[in-house]
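Session log. Operator J.P. requested a structure for one protein chain; no other inputs attached. Running the standard single-chain path with token output.
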Amino acid sequence: MHEVLQRAVSRAVAMGPTILLQGMQIERPLDVVKASAISAEDKRTILASWISDFYAVDSKPALRHMPGTPQPVSIDEVQTALKELDRRYGY
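Structure written below.
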């Protein structure tokens, strides 16, 4: 049973903020900003995670690939989405 629990925890940690995106059509970072069903705080969490090294593409450090999205995006695109989030919510 311990092994089953450990696998479940590992999967949950690997999913991280993507759990907030389940059932949503999120392809690009700006889609997160535009999503009305996600709070501003959760949007910030998702984008901050997306830009982290955890989602870096091997051998391509300027790209990030969030599980559940169709393709990698550039760090610049995620930063642009964070700036737009700040503009919309006055951070």
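Operator note: The beta strands are 56-57, 60-64, 73-74.
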